[in-house]
Please model this.
Amino acid sequence: MALKVLICGGGVAGPALAYWLGIEAVKRMGLTYAVRRKLVDEAGVSLIDTKGNVKVTTLANKSGKGAKSLTSEYEIMPGDPVRMLYEATKDNVEYFFGRTVDPFTENG
Model:
């Protein structure tokens, strides 16, 4: 019997996905190459005050070792993970776009 799962809506799904899709999970899903193809060339992040003065700069940790900073060697655009996961699952998952689910009823 095939596993059937209903995933509906966004809500906390974005942050939950971000939490569970760490680099190790990306490696286990075999999506490392897909992620690396979408990398953003970002040197780091600067916080600037209202006058345009740089207050602090955090450089990207591109070494692959140690703690990650605000940006890293795996920096990609927000929509890219959705596209990557869709491409990786579209042949085995039935997607319904533009539909909603009204009520959910618990059955024990």
About this structure: The chain has a mean pLDDT of 76. The chain has four helices and two strands. Residues 80-89 form the longest helix (10 residues). The CA atoms of residues 51 and 57 lie 16 Å apart.
